[in-house]
């Protein structure tokens, strides 16, 4: 079975992004490229939590709504949310209205503050889990490092950060280059990873 598809521009890409033009744009410019920005890392962990039980396409089409609803995922601002914000978010038709997931994002923002104080940045913590070597099968749903990071986050009080959620986060944020062999974006993502300065 092929893991590639070729859209009208003639450039082969990972098969999963064939669903829509939004997916192709996300695949070409974001997915698998390394990120060291705490706001973006927290946003992605939050959105992966919202995706649980849903498709990423559902979340991607609502991403700007999520950003507006959650103060652009600025960690300190979200950590200050209270019960009135939870009720406001539960009325927001532009996002996924799930109390548990909404409350998890607010809780996780406070836990992220703890991590920043301890590790210096969320990025430094996240990248300490980067897998070494090519020991992760292509498009696996979990990995030893995602299991380890999930376990550690849960121990620290985070919610909606299971091993599958964390592995998808790692794929998207460039800790793993999971673009298929032959995908036009694989080499670009690899060059970006090679040039990337890991946060200390």
TrEMBL record:
Its EC number is 3.2.2.20. Keywords: Glycosidase, Hydrolase, Metal-binding, Zinc. PANTHER family: DNA-3-METHYLADENINE GLYCOSYLASE 1, DNA-3-METHYLADENINE GLYCOSYLASE I. This is DNA-3-methyladenine glycosylase. Zn(2+) binds at residues 14, 27, 179, 183. InterPro entries: Adenine_glyco (IPR005019), DNA-3mA_glycosylase (IPR052891), DNA_glycosylase (IPR011257). It comes from Sphingobium indicum BiD32. One of its GO terms (biological process) is base-excision repair. GO terms for molecular function: DNA-3-methyladenine glycosylase activity; metal ion binding.
